[in-house]
Design a protein that fits this description.
four-stranded antiparallel beta sheet; 13% strand; 64% helix
Length: 154
Amino acid sequence: VETLRIMEEDGLLENATRIGALLKAGLQRELGGLKGFKEIRGDGLMLGIELDRPCGELLGQAAERGLLLSVTADKVIRLVPPLIFGEAEVEETLRILAPVALTLAAVGLLESLLTAQIVDDMTDTPSSTVSSSYANDTSSSVTSKRSILPCVWG
């Protein structure tokens, strides 16, 4: 009962609504539309950022910069800050998370470009060369292109 009284007196629920909306809007502004970021969802101070890949790299880079994050379902970053979270903490979170997200989006874009280039290169190879390379395994250009794929896609 005492906890509920303090929450009401200190306006913690109103704070969660106001600061949560501020945080969500900031995340949408900074991350929305970046390659690899699918959705920002939630209400109040319970938010999720869904990625198109596992979150491990983002979590590691954020932790190196002092921002500890939680993950659920391997591809969703869970943000559940305390009810006393304020505007300064929102700004600090965005200050740390935005550059990490931009770096990872750039890496994702580079991977996509490299993958597209490799696929284009493989498509430009005459089919007779591809067939003979699989049969004889003598075409170094096809062999080298095939050996790159696991690094880019894997």
